[in-house]
Amino acid sequence: MTAYGDLEHRVRSVLADLDDLAFDQLREAVADGATSRPASDRELAKARRSLEKAAAILGRLADEG
Description:
elongated
């Protein structure tokens, strides 16, 4: 695996961890009776989109190399 491919794999692993964190927060909010999403959900979504972009770029670089 190239260095780019390795980084892409690591970023995708962080994405999975971020998804788990977001779902845990949503579950907790529902359990607590919340009627709207937690405030952190928007920021986690921004982080997720950024990591998705990074993973896609690294994947393209891995394919080129």
